[in-house]
Amino acid sequence: MRAAAPKDDPTAWPGTIPLTSLYTAGVGAQIFFDALKQHGKLIGTRCRPCKQVYLPARCFCERCLGALTQQVEVKPTGRLVSYTFCHVDRDGRSLRRPRALALAQLDGATTVLLHFLLDVTGPDQIRIGRRVQVIIKPKQRRIGSILDIEGFRPVNDAKTFSTTRKKRRAK
Question: 14: exposed, middle or buried (C-beta count within 10 Å: 0-12, 13-18, 19+)?
């Protein structure tokens, strides 16, 4: 965090605002969180005209703005689309060990989901396209939040690895 702006800074208005907020997931996301908490399932919604499956579930299609009423269960497996390593927490404090975050497209969804990348401590242990498994907490530890998912764990898949290596060699 940076220090408060000087009093003569025309781009800042010094002062404090006491603020309390409550985040509500909304109707669409609540479908996702309820299914995750109660059944350990990943529920998305489908837009037939746009051929999109949104995960977590949403109320409307972001492309055509149509109502999304068809719920679909998405598999807890997928592929890694992107990843990064965080060296500071959300408050800017240094972490003892970097934390890996991943974007994964789960099987049956057309959107990506962001979560922790488990059991990975460095970029040499992971690659784009690698198969991942969603790890969901045991039912007694779920509270109906995105943190009911522990994260994505890379899957040891020799077939995926050899296919990726062959594609790289061919280029």
Answer: exposed
How far, in Å, CA of 160 to CA of 23, rounded? 39
The model's confidence at residue 114, banded by pLDDT at 50, 70 and 90, is very high
- Could you state, in order of their start, the residue ranges of all structural domains in the chain? 26-170
Ramachandran assignment for 48, one of left (phi > 0), alpha (psi -120 to 50 degrees), beta (any other): alpha
Round to whole Å and give the CA distance between 41 and 21.
28
144: left (phi over 0), alpha (psi -120 to 50) or beta: left
Strands 77-88 and 70-74: unpaired
Q: What are phi and psi of 77, to 5 degrees?
A: -125, 160
- Distance, in Å, from the CA atom of 42 to the CA atom of 113, rounded to the nearest integer, reads 11
Extract the tokens encoding 8.
């003569």
- Residue 88 CA, chain-centre distance (Å), reads 18
What are the structure tokens assigned to 86, written together? Answer: 């965080």
Instruction: Give me the helices (H) in 47-170, please.
Output: 158-170
Predicted confidence (pLDDT) at residue 106 exceeds the cutoff of 70: yes
Query: What is the per-residue pLDDT across 26-82, written as a single tens digit (0 to 9) for each?
Result: 888 999 999 999 999 999 999 999 999 999 999 999 999 999 999 999 999 999 999
